[in-house]
Amino acid sequence: MRNGVTLRQCLLGTCMLLSGLSIFVFVGNFVSSVESDENKYEDMFLGFEEGKCKSCHPAIWREWEKSMHAQAWVDKIYQDAAKLIPDREKSCDPCHAPEPILVTGIGKMPKLRNDQRNSGVSCLVCHLDKDGAMHGPQASAETNFHVNVTNSIYNDPTKLCATCHGQPKVPEHDQVSSFLESRFAEEKKSCATCHMPIVNRLQSTASYESIKGRKHTWRGSRSVAQLKNAASLNIEFAGKKVSVVIKNRAGHLLPGGTLRVIVLEVTHLAPDGTQLKKKQVLISEKTENRLLPDEKRTYTFDVDVGQTLKAQLKYQLTPETPESEWVLMEEVIELVP
Ligand code: HEC
Ligand code: HEC
Ligand code: HEC
Ligand code: HEC
Ligand code: HEC
After folding, report:
1. Alpha helices in the chain (DSSP H)
2. Residue ranges lining ligand 5, Cβ < 6 Å
3. Whose CA is nearest to atom 24 of ligand 3?
4. Cystine design at 192: which of 99, 131, 196, 324 (Cβ 3.0–4.6 Å)?
5. Residues 85-94: pLDDT tens digits?
6. Does ligand 4 lie within 6 Å of residue 101's CB atom?
7. Amino acid 18: pLDDT
């Protein structure tokens, strides 16, 4: 707790809290029943820090805690990259530790928070408004801690996600533009369809019953299951040629982020299993050849009758990831007819 003052002490009287750059005067409920909106807003940051969100929303907290949103600031890959950028506070940090986006504005470039940067893209970033209320899909129970506001953006959250995943000035982190041009958008899917699967659970410890919500896990490139769903691989023989066809099955460009590298590896094997030849083709933004949603791309290789052809699609988290840690996304093995 900041300055060694506990919230309990605050609730028993009046206390001063120094937080980052600003000073707030906190008047607890025992003293006055009228709190200014600014205090309610600040209470939510205190509540977050004191574990209050966690204690009333334990299931959602456990999901979020392991997500890359929770790591967005402490993530070593991020910090190592941001270190190299002289004006990182302006061009990098604002999305990796942002002020609540309902305050800065949905779709607007986020602003860097002064406080609690270690919590990255926290609950407050996506849910808190300037009056200290929590926006979300329809709630079933009342809470004495925060006000609930039903806001339809949570039922179809692509615009919410686009605040960070679709800034026009930051194309390297844009999954939204290619999604909006895809059949998934036409079919009224959203980013939540694949990244926040539906789950039945208690929204809070005060909820009356388990209801449908959406998992706060945001599995992406660290999930082998997601990567196995991301593309299909087929091989077609025609005489002394083989066509290896990759089809993107993700809801956006593949790979979704520009740091990743996907490798198509084609190995020719003799009848006794000895490796005759191996070729690797890179698919990534760096070479400007990412796949659009549903795009099929064909690579052609020469083959000899009697050989066995093995085609594999492998995923690299960063260009420095050692080959032993590449993830196998797809594999096809066939005898050349
Ligand atoms: C508009 C918001 C925004 C800005 C500005 C931004 N990022 Fe990001 N960053 C994201 C999002 C969203 C992701 C996750 C999706 C992706 O990888 O495209 C991400 C992911 C990353 C990752 C991958 C981390 C990992 O472990 O997978 C790195 C590295 C990164 N950002 C570095 C930077 C650097 C360096 C800058 C400044 C030059 C920057 N970012 C500016 C939003 C932003
Ligand atoms: C005293 C318990 C309590 C605390 C502390 C608490 N909440 Fe809640 N919260 C609730 C209840 C109860 C609901 C309504 C749940 C339901 O409908 O089942 C709720 C609903 C929500 C919703 C959905 C709102 C909507 O309209 O759909 C969000 C978002 C939320 N809380 C975020 C937070 C965050 C972030 C914190 C920490 C700053 C927090 N809560 C702390 C009890 C609490
Ligand atoms: C990246 C943005 C984001 C973050 C971070 C986030 N949420 Fe959510 N939250 C959403 C979206 C989108 C929904 C709507 C999902 C749906 O349709 O049910 C939601 C729904 C909810 C709900 C309603 C129940 C449900 O599961 O749908 C509660 C309660 C809630 N969030 C609390 C929290 C808490 C507590 C945290 C932090 C531990 C948190 N959220 C972090 C985006 C976020
Ligand atoms: C306030 C900015 C912000 C918002 C809003 C936001 N994200 Fe993110 N998201 C990030 C950042 C930053 C990262 C990268 C964290 C890292 O790896 O360092 C990220 C990471 C992710 C990842 C994991 C990427 C990986 O490496 O696997 C997924 C998936 C994701 N976000 C989906 C969503 C979805 C879906 C929504 C909307 C419900 C959303 N995000 C809303 C900033 C945001
Ligand atoms: C049809 C399912 C589907 C939809 C819809 C979808 N995604 Fe993905 N997403 C995937 C798959 C599969 C991957 C893993 C492969 C990859 O990296 O692209 C992924 C990866 C990601 C990543 C990690 C990229 C990286 O390089 O680390 C982010 C961030 C992300 N998605 C954000 C979003 C956002 C934002 C939306 C909404 C515009 C969205 N996704 C819609 C399936 C989907």
Report:
1. 7-11, 37-49, 52-56, 58-65, 68-71, 76-82, 88-91, 93-96, 101-104, 123-127, 158-165, 176-180, 183-186, 191-195, 224-229
2. 158, 161, 165, 175-176, 179, 184, 189, 191, 193-195, 220-221, 226-227, 229-230, 250-252, 254-257, 260
3. 213
4. 196
5. 999 999 999 9
6. yes
7. 36
Ligand nearest to the CA of 145: 2
DSSP-based helix, strand, coil % in the chain, nearest 5: 30, 25, 40
The average pLDDT across 3-14 equals: 34
CA of 165 to the centre of ligand 4 (A): 7
Tally of domains within the chain: 2
Q: How far is CA 14 from CA 4, 9, 152, 185, 328, in A?
A: 15, 8, 38, 51, 59
The residue written with tokens 């806001």 in the block is 151
**134-136 and 148-150 strand pairing:** parallel
Residues 30, 35, 39, 40, Cα dihedral to 10°: 90
CB 119 within 8 A of CB 64: no
Ligand nearest to the CA of 44: 2
Could you tell which of 67, 96, 174, 254 is best to mutate to test the pocket of ligand 1, judged by most ligand atoms within 8 Å of the CB?
Answer: 96
Residues 211-255 pLDDT 10s: 889 999 999 999 999 999 999 999 999 989 999 999 999 999 999
Domain range enclosing 59: 36-151
Which of 133, 151, 169 is the C-terminal boundary of a domain? 151
State the ligand closest to the CA atom of 92.
Answer: 1
User: Which residues form the pocket of ligand 3, taking CB atoms under 6 Å from any ligand atom?
Assistant: 53, 57, 60-61, 64, 69, 121, 123, 125-127, 136-137, 154-155, 157, 160, 192, 196, 203, 213-214, 216
Q: Are 46 and 135 in a shared domain?
A: yes
Residues 138 and 237 in one domain: no
Q: For the ranges 48-52, 216-220, 272-276, 282-286, which has the lowest average pLDDT?
A: 282-286
Structural domain includes residue 180: no
